[in-house]
Amino acid sequence: MPENFDAILSKECGLVKDRPVIAGVSGGPDSLCLMEVLRQAGYPVIVAHFDHQLREESGQDARLVEKTATRLMLPSTIDGADVRAYADREKLSLEEAARNLRYQFLFRLARDHNAQAVAVGHTADDQVETILMHFLRGSALTGLKGMSHRSILKTFDADIPLVRPLLNMWREETVVYCAVNGMRPHYDSSNDSLNFQRNRIRHLLIPNLETYNPKFREAVLRMSESLKGDQALLMETMEQAWQETVVKLEEKVVAFKADRLTAHRLGLQRSLIKQAMQTLRPGIDVTFSALERATKLIAGEGNSSRVDLKSGLRIFREANTVYICALDAELPINLWPQMAGTQSLPVSVPGQLALACGWKFSCELWRLPALAKEQADRNDDPLQVWLDAEKLPENMELRVRRQGDQFIPLGMGGHSQKLSDFFVNGKMPQRAREHWPLLCNGGEIIWVPGYRPAHPYRLTSETRKVVYFSVNRLSEKLLE
């Protein structure tokens, strides 16, 4: 046994002795060792066994665990489910299905008993195997550092931790511990089956690698400990970047400030995207290909404005905001001026019109054309414009777009183009186009707020009267 086991339980696992611990006990040497270590250390233990019903003798395992717990005067709960049927129904591998059902049972029991943690018997051998599984999948630093003594599995519970007190013990050490303490573990024949990837790694890959380095397992553990330090530093950096970059965090949406996101190095961008995906889908296995698709979209590579990532998550960019969200997420529309409906609104000079979400449209007459020209030349706000009053029609209106709309944008020498093409070229957010307010005279578009006025209504040296138009939104405090 490790000499510092008490410190591992209290400091690394964060356990206290006045609240129960749910110990997942399969009946093998690892889990029986876990149960006995916790009991001898003085922690209140509730034994939990989940029967996966994958082997004919699995019922005997359940009875053995119950009998052992009774002998040690420990409370126990036995449960089970048809894992194979669940895997077929949910289209999961047997390993993933077994893990899901087992952890659902353990954490449900922990909540029912107000337990401080769920403890499992993962050993140093399990750590090595897990790291190799991640390596074979092309995992990043998070996967290569392996498991921790204490972690939160948000998929199963956002508050109760999973603890692994035996991570510093080898599997053969747990066998010896059980023998010394009179524990009789059972032998699980499924551990020999090469149908499971973990077993192939355990029985084929690791022995082969040990022909190159007899201390291969110890080397992997040293690497894991080293990478944990690197990961801690990365997490500090990422947390700071997260606070600076994320502008919206909801149940189905994470939004980043695009210019702040792109200012970070590519590796940190990937980490932020991964964090966002795992925030929205706890426990999701984020692949490198999904991160590559995301970073390419952020960088403006490719023709698509939105990309599907994984598990019903999508990324897209609108102006200076990058969204990662669920497909059914309701995204804010108050970022832009929008008409409340499809009904046209007559425009009077001077005058104001209320738009949706606290936005308003205003216009006023300026009688100093020189001042207006000076202001227009210095203006960098596309939500305000100065136009030649004498060229403007008497009847104007605010309306939404119509099929076949044409526009003569300023700067195109009087040439017209389809409004739909203008929206695309101007990178107007697609979901904002339907109700974007347009200043018009019937079928003629005078100004697209936020973009450009029409060429015929620009200020010239002959302009004598000017109308100033603006669109702005009341502050959040005034809207409350």
When the domains are counted, the total is: 3
| Tally of individual helices | 16
Distance between the termini: 62 Å
Report the principal-axis shape.
Answer: elongated
Q: Mean of residue pLDDT?
A: 89
Radius of gyration: 32 Å
Secondary structure class reads alpha+beta
CATH topology of the largest domain: Rossmann fold
Percent helix: 25-40%
CATH architecture of the largest domain: 3-Layer(aba) Sandwich
- CATH C-level class of the largest domain is Alpha Beta
Biggest beta-sheet profile: 6 strands, mixed
Give the strand tally.
Answer: 21
Regions with little confidence, pLDDT below 50 for 5+ residues: 476-480
Question: Which labels suit this protein?
Answer:
480 residues; alpha+beta; Rossmann fold; Uridine Diphospho-n-acetylenolpyruvylglucosamine Reductase, domain 3; Phenylalanyl-tRNA Synthetase, Chain B, domain 3; 3 domains; six-stranded mixed beta sheet; five-stranded antiparallel beta sheet; 16 helices; 21 strands; 38% helix
Explain what the structure shows.
The chain is α+β, with helices and mostly antiparallel strands and 480 residues long. The chain folds into three domains: 205 residues, HUPs (Rossmann fold, 3-Layer(aba) Sandwich), CATH 3.40.50; 101 residues, Uridine Diphospho-n-acetylenolpyruvylglucosamine Reductase, domain 3 (2-Layer Sandwich), CATH 3.30.465; 135 residues, Phenylalanyl-trna Synthetase, Chain B, domain 3 (Phenylalanyl-tRNA Synthetase, Chain B, domain 3). It has a six-stranded mixed sheet, sandwiched between helices. A five-stranded antiparallel sheet has the order 7-8-11-10-9. A four-stranded antiparallel sheet has the order 12-16-19-20, with no helix packed on it. Strand 9 and strand 10 form a beta hairpin. Helix 2 crosses helix 8. The chain starts with a helix and ends with a helix. The C terminus is likely disordered.
